[in-house]
Amino acid sequence: MTDTTRLTVPADSLFGLHNLPYGVYSAGGREPRVATRYGDFVVDLARLLGDEVFARPSLNPFMAQGHDRWVAVRAEIAERLRGEVPAEAVHELDTVRLHLPVEVADYVDFYASEHHASNLGRIFRPQNPEPLMPNWKHLPVAYHGRAASIVVSGTDIVRPSGQRKGPEDPAPVFGPTTRLDIEAELGFVLGTGTAMGDTVPADEADRHIFGVVLFNDWSARDIQAWEYVPLGPNLGKSFASTISPWVVPLLALESARVPTPPQEPAVLPYLRMTRPWGLDVDVAVEWNGQIVSRPPYSAMYWSPAQMLAHQTVNGAPSRTGDIFASGTISGPEREQRGAFIELTWGGKDPVTVNGLPRTFLEDGDEVALTATAPGPGGTRIGFGEARARILPAKRQQNPAPASATCP
Is it the case that residue 167 has pLDDT exceeding 90? Predict the structure, then answer.
């Protein structure tokens, strides 16, 4: 007979039955498997439900089964956790290793906050009376990122090197970034994709979006500034992005849905929604143990559904495991800005961190994103954290002398 146990979780837990996020864990040197988090317990889903789709090192096989299956499994997990569960399925949170929860297929980063986009426009183009570019309120602006550089919370980030050219530099120089920054975002994990030529209507997006993670899109602002015209970010962004290990199901966030801000001018038909929705998610940015910002996702101009509709409207294919991120979350107040370039106004207005004036990240700094959202019946839902520490840049090999010839 299998030993069983009954799990007790505090009523005010951010990871109660109202949440039940998905992740991938390993314990005791065994291979990674899919689990849910219930309070401070990690519960192996293959052992809880007897379904081998969860005895895999990623969520992709389960996500590919589709929306109806997600609904059924979520209900089954909650029912099982209310009773006796197999003891072999249960692990204490602090005894397991958490892994990247999905095999990331493609990654697109949006620019969905009007406050963030306006602040950067004022910082970079102070001579222009209008901070937003002419297209910004007509479509969700985005760039295509590098999926292989998405890492799970707890992975150290090496300071990137690249070309940069300051205002006083006569020519570009190569070296480690001196303006390393964060972008506090939400990432949306695609559960089921679309074939080339197909599209996702905005009102059907929530049948494709499986869940939500915290997302830190690390940014080398000096590298980015030199390279991004005319084709946009590349090396300034592609070196690393950190996500939380727990994927909060979109199904858990029904109580967090809120209307998007008014969109003027009216959007084109493919971006219109019967009931436009955003998410009431409160994010906190912690810098070396001190909370320096609290960006509100509810202030985002473009909805996740509109982002997905725009991403697929040209017939571009999408796949299980795709992630599209929101872009920096920022509110109207200084203490709600989700990037240090905004928080310090391009480095001109330092913020005090542990008694010291700071602008951009130094080696050894640690940043953590956390967040909560409203759940049913006055509960709160947690997202875990996206945390990482900055390591020094790797030493570059000396380039070949100019007189060298190629074989």
Answer: no
